Amino acid sequence: MVDTATADAVTAAGNPKYRSGRQTRFAASIIPSTNLTERTGENLPKEDAIEVMGKVVEKFRAGMFTVELDAGQPVLATMAGKLRRNRIKVMTGDRVSLELSPYDLTKGRITYRHK
After folding, report:
1. DSSP3 helix / strand / coil % (the chain, rounded to 5)
2. 85's torsion region: left (phi>0), alpha (psi -120 to 50) or beta?
3. Could you tell me the end-to-end alpha-carbon distance of the chain, in angstroms, rounded to an integer?
């Protein structure tokens, strides 16, 4: 006789849609975090963005870019609303200014394309 609760648990474990909060928290504790607040233990305001420079390496659809920072770290970035509104074209190889979120240093916003 097969226990239905065990069969449901096995099915749910393989599907991320059915994961419980406990399993998600466990997986998050294994993966190393780039979250600045977890490392420093302090709360940072959202307005304090980190300004950096980089070079566009790859262009994706929907305004997403891979930007390599001057330090060599790749960052996934999107265009700021002002650049979209004024239809500023950002191409591969352009030097750009980025704002990085203090909460996730792997994502950013392109705020200026340098000439």
Report:
1. 30, 30, 35
2. alpha
3. 71
Nearest to 89 by CA among 62, 113, 55: 113
Global confidence as pTM: 0.59
Domain that holds residue 27: 4-31
Query: pLDDT of 35-91, one tens digit each?
Result: 545 555 566 555 678 999 999 999 998 889 999 999 999 999 999 999 999 999 999
Give the list of residues 6+ apart from residue 7 with CB closer than 8 angstroms, or none: none
CA neighbor of 47 nearest in space, from 109, 114, 112, 113: 109
Number of structural domains found in the chain? 2
The residue type of 62 is: A
Whether 17 and 55 map to the same domain: the answer is no
Other CB atoms within 10 A of residue 59 CB? 14
